[in-house]
Amino acid sequence: MAHSASIEASNIDFRGHAPRLVTAARMLGLIGLVLTAIVGVAAISMGDGHARESIWRAYVANLCYFTAIGLGGLIFVLIQHATRAGWSVSVRRLAESTAGALPTMAMLAIPIVVVMLLSLPGIEEVYPWLKSGYDRSNAAYLNKPFFAIRMVVFFGIWIWLANFFVNSSVLQDQTGDVRLTSRMESRCYPGILLYALTSTFFVIDMLMSMNPHWYSTIFGVYYFSISFVNNVSVMALMIFFLHRAGFMRNVVSNEHLHDVGKLVFAFTVFWAYIGFSQYMLIWYASLPEETFWFMARQSGPWLYLSILLILGGFFIPFLGLISRHPKRRAAALAVGAAWVLVVHWFDILWLALPRANPEAGAVTISGTTLVFDLVLSLTAMIGIGGIFASAVLQRLGSASLVPTRDPRLNEALAFHNF
Amino acid sequence: MSHASPKTVAVSTEPGALAYYLLEFETPDAIRSAARRVNEAGWTRWDTHTPYPIHGLDATMGVRPTVLPVIVFVCGCLGALTGLALQWWANASDPANFKFIPTFLQGYHFLISGKPYFSLPANIPVIFELTILFSAFGAVFGMLGLNFLPDLYNALFNSRRFARVTDDRFFISLDARDPRFDERKTREFAETLGAAVVEDVRHSPWTAPPQWMVHVGVVASIVALVPLALIARSWTAKSPLPRFHIVQDMDNQERYKAQMENPIFADGRATRLPAEGTVAIGELYEDTHYWYGLVDGKPAETMPERVELNEALMERGRKLFDINCSACHGYDGAAYGAIRVRADAIGNVLAVRSFYERSVMEKSVGHLFNTITNGFQTMPAYGHRVSTEDRWAIVAYVRALQRSRSASVDDLTTEERARLR
Questions:
Q1: Do A323 and B69 touch (CB under 8 A)?
Q2: For the segment B169-218, what is each residue's pLDDT rounded down to a tens digit?
Q3: Least Cα separation, residue B367 to chain A (angstroms)
Q4: Domains of chain B, first to last
């Protein structure tokens, strides 16, 4: 068949290249973590009283950021099976590789749980519900042991889901067994349900509980929108770099790129929709116990970040990606995708860094604390990001870049947008 | 793709005139290669007709990318602007600046949740919806327009063979309006394209619709006018009946009215006092001089600072005095208004006071204000129907009336005095 021929002619074996890249990424990650420690110690010894808090916040923010990408990969794969999507088969393994990094993210989450269990200094400032004197009306949910149990459950479910879907797909490369596809399809529906619950409560625990008495019912959806848009952006970047290195040329065409681009575009709009919905309800009701959270993000340096998010998270990608042309050019889409990834990194910082107090609204922090916040976030990004990337690359290099014997592969190769 | 702009050729559309050559194909591959050749030959007015979309056929035909996305984008932007302008107009524009616009088209200030009249976060949902709506309109009507639809007559449907286009046959139609069209040469060209059949499609004579359809049409058009006529009538007619309640909700709401019973509260009353220590918007009556005419608990001797004495205020005072007070006090304030005159005529007693009685002349403005607000002995109260600002305007006017009866020569300017002599 013509299509199988094009797959053979195309280089889809990344195995030879991966190990070098994996080592490089891992080195980078370790350097980042060491740098974080050095900057952290420097900040503490310089007498910045908030330094310890800054370290934990930067770490949690980046943990959430890269976990979001992995979760985005997971939900992407689940949705493809749920909809029996044909077009996406040729890019599905890219999403499987980001989902496959979730076990590594579980390892990176352990330090935070340990810090919490040991009540190391500074963590109580990040999660006030850890303080002994805290008004404990929701203590039944927010307490150390239950938090730790939940983390184990969340990551356990994700690892289980990711392993099942990635391994089944890889197994099919060898056996060509069509039953694997139907098995994945029948498991994806409960998988989606589990994903929705775990991802929502994960971010409630990790980020929303930084203000234990503040709640927004749309918070989980907001995190989901970040996960999804980040993951498809990562996929667009992967396609760009793999194409440049000569991989997957005939398998992933402009048509597939176009669809990935449409998802990036659609989910930046979705993110804006959800973000605005959250803002508008709180703004309209104007209840002090809710508005202080936004007050903190509308005052001081965070105001500029908020404006950046509105412009950079919505208007710029909206206008930049609305036309079909950039979506069909790998380089243009890669620029858009990189932009989106950077903006949403700031988006997560926007969730994690500002200190807010229900009584006082914004809590002003000193310039040095702000600088340490940002520098530590950057080094932690290099650290956690490097390790995350090494895990993704390892997955990419552990099987072919395309599920070669997926029953819908031919459909994907013949795929054509109208 | 660039085509030389097609020159218009006069083509007969008389019944029986040639409209198309219709080429029938049996396979998608056959139509694809034929389409490529028609395109290469430079045809502009021709089309392919297939039972299902064939990928890439539009490219083979040399169809240019559509401008529809641009139309949709522009419509979307217009929708966003419309949403913004509409909300500004309806809620934030000041009617005073747009007197030349009929009242029923003017906006009015409507305070919602204490937000500013014009506030972007509240406007975004409507902007969003209108953007979507206008984009959808742009897409649908733009598509129809670009395709010259709806098209009530197309000669292609005169071909019986063409019915199979929704079934299992592929067609190319070569339009007689194309500048390249030539009855003989085009036929020859068509026959080289590998079609199973080449058919001449001719214009059909105009057939009148059946008689019953005409009757139904006439009756339906007349019936359709009835609602319009009814609306037109009720716009001009006057009626003692209450108006139609098409949408009930706004008129008859499920809600508690003043003095009703409400079991939710311990005292069983629906009417509540404001929460202690709170003041409703616009009801902070701190300035007792202005709101009650009192200074240090005594009737004010002077007009409050907030009231600016000028021509406009006097004019307003006169108007309101004529409306509210003249019936008893007379237009001149001498206590011979129509009611007083009538009361005297039928032997009733209405002891209206003249403003020029000494006792009234000596009253302070604060006292006059109080009389208008709360009434005075047998004189009724006006505080509930005349606004505070307007009551001060009346006070000013009453004072002016009184002054007019106690003027001396000294009040005149030198010129006026000169004229008197």
A1: yes
A2: 999 999 999 999 999 999 999 999 999 999 999 998 888 888 999 999 99
A3: 44
A4: 1-207 (no CATH), 293-415 (1.10.760.10)
